[in-house]
């Protein structure tokens, strides 16, 4: 009986593993169907380990859809990761988190999660898997390096990684080769070696067309290939590829790929002076752009909230562990235990207090809108005339000196209309010179407006948070609180309390804003 029970358990584990692999493969061509299977697997999970693996699976599927809010929700549901996941799974978990942070332009968090993935990669016992994840991490680091500059060192690294990839087995080799061809195609395109770049995009298309089908990489390759064709003035071929990309991205339900495909179609039809198709795809592009701006802001807020919550939980666990050790160590004397207990709690309170004060001091120095931030990614060729770009920049500067951004109805289309320009130009210029999207740009202006009011008008410190939210132009108390904390690092209530104490004690004076 015991033998039969063990056999059944082993069979169930094997079936679970096969189901997970099949779902991962399906997610590359039909993520919505893969999600249905993932939810069924999660519902039938019997152990914490199974739940953790299925949450990881669902998070990966949402990542493929570029639905970062839901991806983060499921990835952060995995608690006590070292207890429920292998080193291999932990490495993968932190890699996905890192890639999401990179796409949301959260560079500090990207590096933090990438470093965590390296720690777990180093602990993997299986040499083959250890080398696989080492190569995967190096490819991601190479992507970051290529966005800054090209050097002989970079070319040497590309060659070494290609050799490493060719030592792997078929499935893993295909996964990494697709990422490798993406990098090579983009790098040679930036170098204006368009024919060579097209060769790499074709390799990526061929790999993506093999089973399991990978619509994400296929769509990405078609977009890149079409961009090269546009530069070669082969507009008809570019349009054909972009329509295929749009079709694949719709099957993936990936808003980002749909937005890029429709945007590039607009550029091609504009050059061809095809007004009907230009209007159709421009409307589609603007619709997707609005959706992406909203979902990106939601994802950024979700990321900050989940990371903050996880840090608080880890801190609480450490404190609990320290207290337990303390009790064991000094249990001989109840009196000594009480003394140490109060001292311990006092120290924590003092550290927390110091941290809050330091955060407060940093708020006014570091969290104003950073004008003309250097773009971290290599800029794509801009179609905006230099004179037009400078006019819009000057208008933005004047706009920041007004209170128009506190209007709840303020939107990209609204401001573009005020500036006598189009949403595409305005969005691109804000992204290029401020390194943020339109929503984040407006939210930073609103938060800094309230910070100034709190510092210069004592009455504001006595107003309710709901009034401050309304005065700044936010739609609700909760959205104001979330955005305020994501930008400043502390909640508005905490900030006001510190400001009141500062005013009362008069210990901090003349803090300058560095705009």
Automatic annotation (TrEMBL):
Keyword Iron-sulfur in record: no
Membrane-spanning segments: 326-344
Organism of origin: Flavobacterium croceum DSM 17960
Higher taxonomy: Bacteria, Pseudomonadati, Bacteroidota, Flavobacteriia, Flavobacteriales
Annotated signal sequence range: none
Keywords, sorted A to Z: DNA-binding, Membrane, Transmembrane, Transmembrane helix
InterPro entries listed in its UniProt record: HTH_AraC (IPR018060)
Transcription regulation keyword on record: no
Domain HTH araC/xylS-type: 394-498
Pfam families: HTH_18 (PF12833)
Protein name as annotated: Helix-turn-helix protein
GO molecular function terms listed in the Swiss-Prot or TrEMBL record: DNA-binding transcription factor activity; sequence-specific DNA binding
């Amino acid at each position: 009986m015991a033998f039969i029970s063990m056999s059944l358990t082993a069979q169930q584990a094997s079936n679970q593993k096969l189901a997970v692999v099949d779902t991962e493969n399906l997610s590359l061509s039909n993520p919505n169907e893969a999600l249905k299977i993932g939810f069924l697997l999660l519902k039938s999970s019997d152990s914490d380990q199974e739940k953790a693996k299925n949450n990881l699976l669902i998070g990966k599927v949402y990542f493929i859809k570029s639905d970062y809010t839901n991806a983060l929700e499921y990835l952060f549901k995995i608690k006590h990761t070292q207890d429920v996941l292998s080193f291999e799974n932990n490495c993968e978990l932190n890699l996905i988190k890192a890639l999401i942070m990179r796409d949301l332009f959260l560079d500090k968090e990207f590096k933090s999660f990438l470093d965590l993935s390296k720690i777990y990669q180093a602990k993997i016992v299986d040499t083959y898997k250890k080398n696989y994840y080492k190569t995967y991490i190096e490819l991601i680091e190479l992507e970051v390096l290529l966005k800054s500059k090209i050097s002989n060192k970079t070319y040497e690294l590309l060659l070494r990684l290609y050799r490493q990839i060719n030592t792997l087995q078929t499935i893993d080799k295909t996964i990494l080769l697709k990422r490798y061809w993406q990098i090579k195609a983009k790098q040679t395109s930036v170098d204006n070696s368009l024919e060579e770049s097209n060769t790499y995009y074709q390799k990526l298309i061929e790999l993506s067309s093999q089973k399991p089908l990978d619509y994400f990489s296929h769509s990405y390759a078609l977009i890149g290939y079409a961009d090269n064709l546009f530069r070669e003035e082969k507009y008809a071929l570019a349009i054909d590829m972009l329509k295929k990309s749009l079709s694949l991205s719709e099957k993936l339900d990936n808003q980002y790929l749909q937005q890029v495909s429709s945007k590039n179609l607009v550029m091609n039809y504009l050059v061809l002076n095809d007004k009907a198709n230009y209007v159709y795809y421009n409307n589609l592009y603007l619709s997707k752009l609005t959706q992406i701006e909203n979902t990106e802001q939601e994802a950024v807020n979700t990321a900050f909230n989940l990371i903050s919550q996880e840090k608080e939980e880890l801190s609480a666990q450490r404190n609990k562990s320290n207290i337990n050790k303390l009790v064991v160590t000094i249990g001989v004397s109840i009196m000594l235990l009480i003394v140490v207990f109060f001292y311990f709690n006092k120290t924590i309170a003092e550290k927390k207090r110091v941290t809050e004060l330091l955060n407060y001091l940093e708020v006014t120095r570091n969290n104003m809108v950073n004008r003309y931030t250097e773009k971290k990614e290599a800029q794509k060729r801009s179609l905006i005339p230099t004179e037009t770009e400078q006019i819009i920049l000057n208008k933005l500067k004047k706009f920041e000196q007004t209170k128009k951004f506190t209007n709840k109805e303020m939107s990209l289309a609204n401001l573009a209309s005020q500036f006598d320009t189009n949403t595409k130009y305005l969005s691109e210029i804000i992204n290029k010179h401020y390194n943020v999207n339109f929503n984040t740009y407006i939210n930073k202006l609103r938060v800094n407006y309230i910070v100034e009011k709190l510092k210069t008008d004592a009455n504001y410190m006595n107003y309710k948070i709901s009034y401050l939210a309304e005065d700044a132009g936010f739609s609700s108390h909760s959205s104001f609180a979330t955005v305020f904390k994501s930008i400043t690092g502390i909640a508005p209530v905490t900030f006001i309390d510190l400001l009141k104490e500062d005013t009362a004690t008069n210990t901090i004076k003349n803090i300058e804003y560095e705009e």
